[in-house]
Description:
The protein is mainly α. It is 73% helix and 0% strand. α6 runs antiparallel to α11, α8 crosses α9 and α10 packs antiparallel against α13.
Amino acid sequence: MKKNNDNQIRKTSMGARASQRLGNTVVYVILAIVTVVWLFPFFGILLESFRVETRMQVSYLWPQQYGFDNYIRLFTETDFLIWFRNTGIMGVATAFFQTFFILSMSYTLSRLRFKGRKTLMNLMLILGMFPGFLTMILIYKVFADAGLTLNMAPVGLVIVYCASSGMGYYVSKGFFDTIPTTLDEAARVDGATRWDVFRKVIMPLSKPIIIYTILMGFMAPWGDFMLASYIIHENSQGMNVAVGMYEWLSKTNLNTHYTMFCAAGVVVAIPVTTVFLCLQKYYVEGVTGGAVKG
């Protein structure tokens, strides 16, 4: 009787393992298919960037002639390096200032209790629901009067990106809420100021959320088109990569600049992808840590 029970348990265990392996195999196959579908456009852009023929519409997918002509033209015949430099400077500046503003606001709302705190949080939440382009006319008027358009557009865009960044406190505040307040109290007993607590106690424990905030701030200028095109106003010296590359998609330039556009897309993706891959561990930790408490 005991032997029959052992055999039955063994069969049940083997069946469970087989079922688990089958389920894992199905999941892996589905993930592989989704990955191929998701990466196919990027692979196609990479192939197009090496295609010598510049026409957009061709009857083949795999390039018949390879070459670096598009990359050579990109760096020698266009203002792409200026656009890339402008975007890189905006990305670094935005990442620095946004991180400082967001983390300062988040720490204040997480640790301090003052009159109107809840009202301020709710007000920022409501204001964040309105699309940013509603203020574009006013922003352009103010920046035009201050000389922050055209060539000086990168400076104006950094101001716009950072001015209201404190309203994006939600994830960072949630992360700070998970850090025990007893650490703050202990530091205050030892004579530390609020700034000392923030800089010497909280920041060393907040590496994931700091890197998450830096990454979000760095990536924002690379894809901004609507506001940037409005402030830059077709001035090549002040363009970022999104606005500059869009000029190549007009009807007059499409057949002569399409493959160069693909090459520029590959070059633009390199810094953002590299930074994200290097910091994705902290990105995930920052998002999940900030989602624990609100």
